[in-house]
Amino acid sequence: MHDLLANSKWQKRDLIFIAVAVLCLTPLISSPIALVLGFTLVTLGLVPQHIDINQLTKKMLSYSIIGLGFGINLEQAISASKEGIGLILISIFGTLIVGWMLTKVLRIDRKTGHLIASGTAICGGSAIAAVAPAINAKGNQTSLALAVVFILNSVALFVFPLIGHLLNMSQHAFGVWSAIAIHDTSSVVGAAAAYGDEALLTATTLKLARALWIIPVAFISALLFKGDSKKITIPLFILFYCLAILTAHFLPDFTSLYQGIFTASKQTLVLCLFLIGSGITFQKIKEAGVKPLVLGILLWVIIASCSLFYIQLIM
Question: Which DSSP string do the residues of 95-106 spell out, in sequence order?
Answer without folding.
Answer: HHHHHHHHHHHH
